[in-house]
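Predict structure. Chain length: 134.
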Amino acid sequence: MIKTVPKAADVLHASAMPAHEPWYSTTLNVWTLAATIVASITLTKTVAAGWRQTFGRRRHVISRVRKVAPWVTPGHLEELFGEPTWASTLTVHRHQPEEPVPDEDVEVELTKRTWKLGRFGYLVTWSTRNTVEI
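Prediction complete.
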């Protein structure tokens, strides 16, 4: 067996080889990743909203009702339940302590707000301008 050694003219130099093109495109991968993330977030929010409106409604309402307490602001309740279904204002007399304070108002304006919680009932609150009393 005779081995032949290739001549220098037969060997391609590295600079004479064609440029290697990658099988992937970085720009395409970045846009694909961004589209996948946006689609995942949108799908997750849609499924969660659908769950809260159907099978998970009871748990959703209960978690909101547990955040209600005396002396929270009326704005907090509107963040939890949205705009009230009914609202009315009435003037009531506050019970005076044993030793009346001369500057204290005896009449207080209370706002009664009612939210319909679907089949679960109604949430009724009475509040002054700044705080929920009950």
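Summary: Helices lie at 26-53, 57-65, 74-81.
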